[in-house]
Fold this sequence. Notes:
Radius of gyration: 61 Å
Number of helices: 16
Strand content: 5-15%
Largest sheet: 3 strands, antiparallel
Number of strands: 8
Shape: elongated
Order of helices and strands: HHHHEHHEEHHHEEHHHHHHEEHE
Oligomer: single chain
Distance between the termini: 160 Å
Helix content: 55-70%
Structural class: mainly alpha
Amino acid sequence: MEPTILSIIIGAIALAAGIVLGKVIFAKNTKKQVEDAQLQAQTILKEAELRAETLKKEKELEAKEKFVQMKSVHDKEVMQRNQKLLDSENKIKQKEQSINQKEGNLDKQVKENEAIKETLNRQIEVVNLKRTELEKHQEEHIRRLEKVAGLSAEDAKAQLIEGLKQEAQTKAIALQQEIIEDAKQKANKEARKIVIQTIQRTAAEQAIENSITVFNLESDEIKGSIIGREGRNIRAIEAATGVDLIVDDTPEAIVLSSFDPLRREIARLSLQRLVADGRIHPARIEEVVEKTKKQLDDQVMEIGERTAMELGVHGLHKELIRMVGRMRFRSSYGQNLLMHSRETANLCAIMAAELGLNPKLAKRAGLLHDIGKVPDEETELSHALLGAKLAEKYGENPAVVNAIGAHHDEMEMQYVISPIIQACDAISGARPGARREIMQQYIQRIKDLENLAQAYQGVEKAYAIQAGRELRVIVEADKVTDADSDKLSFEIAQKIQTEMTFPGQIKVTVIREKRAVNIAR
């Protein structure tokens, strides 16, 4: 910084000298002027040198003051840093002291743990010795018990386990029965209410259909005309209708026998026309039978349309309407198929309404659920699957198709109304007076029921009473205990449920009677 100031001063001096010299030159270079100029120049030089010296000293003082200030600031910073270092050193020393203390404490704990470990090892050794002694005493005690009881430990254990097993099994069966009964009461409470209300709100007929029809005559003289010369008329009627005519000693009556009610109806109406007309010969018989068939086809359609209209089922295909009409001339276990379908439809509608479902769709499915029983051609399919196939063919709702196919569990239920159709079909068929069984089948079912109970050990006698609705089982008191009676009743009921087919429900009652007999002489 100082050389720069000096150079400025020198430059100024040189400039002043140059100006003076210039004046001297312009003053015509006179000697006096030159001397004055020299004097002025020297004066100016001296003044300049004095000023330069003064400025130099001032700058040096300023530089010294700045240096002193900077040095003081630096000293303060150094002192602060040193103080921080001292503080850090003090903290480090304190941490070292605490670490040293912790190390000392850890050493003490390690030593204490080692002492405790040694003590525990000694105690474990003592415990092991005592355990060994206890096992020896226990073995000796078991040998003494086995000697006194005459049983080995394994035999006694096996007997104990068997006893506990039987007791647990008995309690489990009793508990299972309680749970099942409780679940049935709670789960079926509303269902029972709905079913009872549904049945009460539906009027039903009794089973009256059979495989014969009696055709009444005004006199026995007409029998000869019906038989014809050498029996040609009766043979023509049987060939045209497929119905057997039984002409016996029954006064004023002819029996029409066939398992097909439609054929019996055709034969009855044809005979009625022939007797009314009086002209009975093979050609006339064939003509009348054909006319009767056509008339009956129209009647079938009329019955189907009237049934659909009465039930409020609209939009049925003509073929489905015809099948519904043909149900009038079919029966199952003595129950008329059309009446059964109508009853099932009404039950389904009521139950669906109670459950908040679509009653019209349920009624439609209930009416059509047995259309597979009146096909035009015989097939190997079951009536449920065939009915579903026909309903699908004629454009019925998928829910209706599934309900028809699943009402005998031959198809998986995919809609909510499917179990309703199944339940209502069972209600219509199982109610008292709805159907009747063939005597041989009924007797065989009763025998199977009794034989099933008699196959169990300890059963003395078994009686099926109340038309097979209750099974009473009499057991030997010496072989069957009270707890075994509960178990036996439960097992027989489960076996009947899984192995037999029966309408409604069967009550199983196990009777155990203990008799003590002595004779006084």
